[in-house]
């Protein structure tokens, strides 16, 4: 499809409260694969607000809040869809079909989704949906969840109505076979498929870390990702699972567990890449590799402002033999706030006058 909203966006983006980097502009073409019981409603609210603010075009279902889930997604399920028509945001529940979704969005759209620890997801799904799954109606006892986990095969049939809520629900949402066992080669292929189609996979247990990655990926502002936790259950309704029961959940939902492990590791690989780069810069730039006390800082350009009557704020010495190609970035990364403000042309005469006075009064 061809994006017809460029002219609108040129003007709507002018009301951003924060300046954007010249190297990137806010992403407006987004596919959010809304998985079940994963904090996805909170992400949906973020997308609704962004799309409304910038007058973007949503691909909405026709007459309901999902795209005829659990049926596989089809473009014909989108309200006012016309072949060749273009939307900016797709974000309601669906059973994912990448070939169909691609028809709705311009080239270069960013695909994101969210996963949750399969133990907590299964507990939440069972609590929320079990009355809609006839398979569970014949489970006796007060704690149906425990009874089910003690003998899931006795209460499960792949062909039964709404049975997908009881096993590997994430795999099912992504259009994959949710009845495969964890060691089935199709699980590996399924994970590879999700990895191929999605640019960023958020992790519910690390929601705020995920939002920072989302903000960076989409070149959005902090205001764009502010949120309140939506659709949360009251704590008294949560089932406290023993380690033994948690292990049974993971065994029963082995495909989802492998999917979650893969993308949880991927998220932390991105975080660790930043940590690795920081460690590299420390080794390149900082003499001794650590901060030092103020009186040991050799270059006043790197001496931070100190509290009245104290010298408790640490700073750094830059290596004398810094590689010339890294010298500028090292200097800038080591420069304290006041010196950097001066470098940027800010007049600090009152601050400097006070600094001179306090040094005389409190160090004499």
Automatic annotation (TrEMBL):
Cite the Pfam families for this sequence: Gal-3-0_sulfotr
GO CC terms of this entry: Golgi membrane
Q: Where are the transmembrane segments?
A: none
State the signal peptide span.
Answer: 1-21
Q: Where in the cell is it found?
A: Golgi apparatus membrane
- Which family does this protein fall into? Belongs to the galactose-3-O-sulfotransferase family.
**What protein am I looking at?**
Galactosylceramide sulfotransferase
Lineage of the source organism? Eukaryota, Metazoa, Chordata, Craniata, Vertebrata
